Amino acid sequence: MKVLVIGSGAREHALCRCLSLDPDVTALHCAPGNAGIAEVAQLHRIDALDGEAVAALATDLGVELVVVGPEAPLVAGVADAVREVGIPVFGPSQEAAQLEGSKAFAKDVMAAAGVPTARSYVCTTVQEVEEALDAFGAPYVVKDDGLAAGKGVVVTTDLEAAKAHAADCERVVIEEFLDGPEVSLFAVTDGETVLPLQPAQDFKRALDGDEGPNTGGMGAYSPLPWADPKLVEEVLRTVLQPTVDEMRRRGTPFSGLLYAGLAITSRGVRVIEFNARFGDPETQVVLARLKTPLAGVLLAAAKGTLADLEALRWSDDAAVTVVVASHNYPGTPRTGDPITGLDEVAAQDAPFAYVLHAGTRSEGGAVVSAGGRVLSVTATGADLAEARRRAYRAVGRIGLDGSQHRTDIAAKAAEAAV
Ligand code: AMP
Ligand code: GLY
């Protein structure tokens, strides 16, 4: 099978790595990709947001499957453009991607489907904002309605800060604060059949101890030794299947990857958000544990034949990923700095630890930083403690001036398991 992956992050590197290990994949292409993806796929320089360009490339290459990684092309309708030229595509239509593209739309679907989520108000005026903040009280949760790469959400006990964030957005969703650990659960779906993957936990805050601003994600691990073994089954029944059914009922079936961001509260599971694509960095750890070859699963979702697929097989290993970010991330990051130590990791830590590239590019034979999240160092082990040791040993070999990473990814979960 010839496959084209759209995107350029560590998630796409993880997808490409996994696809490159699939014996059914005979050729792997990626657009636009990055310096790391270039090692496993042939790169093509096109604008990932340009549906016609992606469809034309897919046609030229004769690929049998296009996998759209990030949310921005999905919301821009890239999957629709590819479907129109008759090539199977893993990723929802523009309309269905509104599940991620608009928090207000997602709330509406959840209400119709009876999916448990935080109570919320959609606000467009100062008065509505003040009334909503007053109704829920502190801590305040204020979300930009549109796409904001994980950075449009402010959770604060400071009323003035909550109002200030709302004032910066055209339309906001203000909601009840959800207490309890967060879980990311992904499901592959063809619009009807829903196949949940293994749960993971993401670390959204920039600094150790969950301090600092929200980011796109600073690390992740899987499995979750502390979670109820019935969690996946419960979320499938109460969240994933009803949402997929409701989208189909509306005439906008959702196919691709449905990402449920969940809070495990004292009153039960609640949806924090939906995303319409694989999460980053959770994908790095979920795919590290997947034993079923990936291409066939994604193709079945694209073609509507998931019901015929055998159950997914998973490794009992644990996986941990640690994001190495540029100086100043999640603010405007510093870029163009050389990255060292990549060869050392490949020589000394493989196959148990490896580097997935995000914001990198090649510059005269060297690899330099080119974005906020630069690398995602991923490792597997018999348990989380071993995976953590391996991941951090590899992180220690990476040199990048001014870079930052969290030192506590999976630390609590690893201790509790011991
Ligand atoms: P979102 O972009 O909706 O996933 O929000 C980003 C992060 O903000 C989440 O991962 C949570 O850590 C936090 N968050 C969002 N909504 C809530 C909520 N209702 N209660 C508590 N924390 C929240
Ligand atoms: N890990 C958070 C996200 O992908 O949105």
From TrEMBL:
<dbReference type="GO" id="GO:0009113">
    <property type="term" value="P:purine nucleobase biosynthetic process"/>
</dbReference>
<dbReference type="InterPro" id="IPR037123">
    <property type="entry name" value="PRibGlycinamide_synth_C_sf"/>
</dbReference>
<dbReference type="InterPro" id="IPR020559">
    <property type="entry name" value="PRibGlycinamide_synth_CS"/>
</dbReference>
<keyword id="KW-0436">Ligase</keyword>
<dbReference type="GO" id="GO:0005524">
    <property type="term" value="F:ATP binding"/>
</dbReference>
<dbReference type="InterPro" id="IPR013815">
    <property type="entry name" value="ATP_grasp_subdomain_1"/>
</dbReference>
<keyword id="KW-0067">ATP-binding</keyword>
<dbReference type="Pfam" id="PF02844">
    <property type="entry name" value="GARS_N"/>
</dbReference>
<dbReference type="InterPro" id="IPR020560">
    <property type="entry name" value="PRibGlycinamide_synth_C-dom"/>
</dbReference>
<keyword id="KW-0547">Nucleotide-binding</keyword>
<dbReference type="InterPro" id="IPR020561">
    <property type="entry name" value="PRibGlycinamid_synth_ATP-grasp"/>
</dbReference>
<comment type="similarity">
    <text>Belongs to the GARS family.</text>
</comment>
<dbReference type="InterPro" id="IPR016185">
    <property type="entry name" value="PreATP-grasp_dom_sf"/>
</dbReference>
<comment type="pathway">
    <text>Purine metabolism; IMP biosynthesis via de novo pathway; N(1)-(5-phospho-D-ribosyl)glycinamide from 5-phospho-alpha-D-ribose 1-diphosphate: step 2/2.</text>
</comment>
<dbReference type="GO" id="GO:0006189">
    <property type="term" value="P:'de novo' IMP biosynthetic process"/>
</dbReference>
<dbReference type="InterPro" id="IPR000115">
    <property type="entry name" value="PRibGlycinamide_synth"/>
</dbReference>
<dbReference type="GO" id="GO:0004637">
    <property type="term" value="F:phosphoribosylamine-glycine ligase activity"/>
</dbReference>
<dbReference type="InterPro" id="IPR011761">
    <property type="entry name" value="ATP-grasp"/>
</dbReference>
<dbReference type="Pfam" id="PF01071">
    <property type="entry name" value="GARS_A"/>
</dbReference>
<keyword id="KW-0658">Purine biosynthesis</keyword>
<protein>
    <recommendedName>
        <fullName>Phosphoribosylamine--glycine ligase</fullName>
        <ecNumber>6.3.4.13</ecNumber>
    </recommendedName>
</protein>
<dbReference type="InterPro" id="IPR011054">
    <property type="entry name" value="Rudment_hybrid_motif"/>
</dbReference>
<dbReference type="GO" id="GO:0046872">
    <property type="term" value="F:metal ion binding"/>
</dbReference>
<dbReference type="InterPro" id="IPR020562">
    <property type="entry name" value="PRibGlycinamide_synth_N"/>
</dbReference>
<dbReference type="Pfam" id="PF02843">
    <property type="entry name" value="GARS_C"/>
</dbReference>
<feature type="domain" description="ATP-grasp">
    <location>
        <begin position="107"/>
        <end position="303"/>
    </location>
</feature>
